[in-house]
Structure formats: structure tokens, C-alpha cells
Amino acid sequence: MSTIAITGGGGFLGQSAAAWAKTLGHEVIVFDRTHGDDVLGDLSKMGDADSIIHLAGKLGTAELFDDAESAIETNIIGALRVLQLCERTGAGFVNISMPPVFPSVYTATKVCTDRLATAWHMFKGVPTSKVIAYNAYGGKQHHGPGHPQKILPTFATLGWANKPLPIWGDGEQTIDLVHADDIGRMLVEATYHGDDNTFDGGTGIAMTVNHLADRIIKITGSTAGKEYLPMRDGEVATHIVAEGRGWEFLSWRPELNWDAVTDAVCEYRTA
């Protein structure tokens, strides 16, 4: 049993990671702004951790162009400070990342953090790994004003409200839909590896945005259909799918479960 600290441990993926860490027998330190914690502030709360899963950061795509400096400070400088803590204490570092496909502020910060982690592994001896999160979903995912527009909660809430589902572009771009619990489990198991390993947090099954929209329209019974809009700033049409990196280290793999998708959509029915 080890002690795992989770920055952003009160967030969407953080809650899943914390639950899995406890299930697998680890002690958990939740480091989260809802507890008054700040990755740009005092990190001593995590000083006794054997591993740190770093999830804290500013999220968004188009939204961050107007908040780029703050996002860079939080996402890059914050990650650097956690890496430096790991260097001092001997803790391992697990970073949440994403496929580097979008020309966005958030993507740029995650690419930089990945490079910093590799540098601190190679030259400072910090055990590191990263989980590439594809399109995570789950009923606890935040939505609405002040939160990034994530695909499932956006579609689900509008579907239940019988409003058109917004499709940016032609909807033929692909996503890899993966449950937050699978990402949480993978983040915890990534702490067992420290050779700058990469774990693909996806199912390996690509689907189009149109296909997911049609499924959610059917689940919600919406009659409003879809509304096609220009691509948002920071996004381009992509065809992404998990390649299976790191799965050889796992005794399981993430799977697409349409019953779980339906359950998640139904959790937004009264939202």
C-alpha cells in the first residue's frame, strides 16, 4: 500500500482516481481548490506522498484564448512546481494529457507539461508516466456556464430540453468515448510505472460526432435534431482513436459500454 496524492482530486476525473486508489488499497491525499489548495501555492500537504497524480489545471478550448496567460501559469508553472516537489521527495509523477491534435492554448500547455515530465525523468530522476485521456464521460461531469462544453453533458442536457444538439463542423470527425472510471483506474495503475510510460486512456473504438448525437437524440426522445455550426477556435476536424499504448502493462482494457453511456445521459435528465 502506498500514499497517492491527487491534484484536482475533487474534480471529475479526480474523484474517479481517488475512488480507484482507495479500492486498490492506497491512502489518498486529495489536493483540490475546493479545499483551499493551489498548485501555485503551498504544496507541503503532498510531501509524504509516494506518487502524485497531477490533474489540476485550467480547462477549455475556445474559452482559454481570452485567459491564456492564466492557463499557462496554472497548467505549466503549476505542473513544474509539482515535478520539483517530486524531485525533492522522491515521489512519482503521473500526468493527465491529451492527444496533441488541436491548435489550442490547453493543448499547448499539456504538450509542454509532457515535455517537462520527460525532462525531469531523464535528468532529475523523477519516475513519470502519463495517461492520454480521450473523450471521457460520466454523470458527474460539470456543464453549463463557467465550464468547458464537453460533448456528452452538452448533448444530453440539450437533448432532454428538446433543443438542437450543436455540431461543430460536419460531425464526421471522430471521438473515442471512454468512461471516467476507466481513466481513474488507469491513472492509479500508471503510478506503478515510472519509466516515462504512456497509457492510452481510450477504448480504441472511433465513432463520429454525428453517431453519438443520433444515439443521444434517441435516448432522450428529442425532436429538435442537430444544428451544424462552424468549428470553434482552437479545434480542427480530427479522426482520433486510442492506439493501445501502455495496455500491455494492464490486466484489463477500457471498453465502450453503451449501457454506461445511456446511464450517464440519463443522469442529466433533471439537470
What does this structure look like?
The protein has 271 residues and is an alpha/beta fold. It has one domain (3-266): NAD(P)-binding Rossmann-like Domain (Rossmann fold, 3-Layer(aba) Sandwich). 35% of the residues lie in helices and 19% in strands. The chain has helices spanning 12-23, 68-89, 105-124, 151-160, 180-190, 209-220, 258-266, and strands at residues 3-7, 27-31, 51-54, 92-97, 128-133, 135-137, 165-168, 174-175, 177-179, 195-201, 207-208, 226-229. A 6-stranded parallel beta sheet has the order 2-1-3-4-5-10, with helices on both faces. The chain has a two-stranded parallel sheet with strand order 6-9. A two-stranded parallel ribbon has the order 7-12. The longest helix is centred in the N-terminal third of the chain and has 22 residues, at 68-89. The mean pLDDT is 95.
> Termini distance?
39 Å
Strand order of the largest sheet: 2-1-3-4-5-10
CATH superfamily: NAD(P)-binding Rossmann-like Domain
Beta strands, count: 12
Total discrete domains: 1
Series of secondary-structure elements, N-terminal to C-terminal: EHEEHEHEEHEEEHEEHEH
Q: What profile does the largest beta sheet have?
A: 6 strands, parallel
CATH architecture: 3-Layer(aba) Sandwich
User: Count the helices. How many?
Assistant: 7
State Rg: 18 Å
Helical content stands at 25-40%
Mean pLDDT: 95
- Assigned CATH class: Alpha Beta
Globally, the shape reads globular
Q: Strand share of the residues?
A: 15-25%
Structural class: alpha/beta
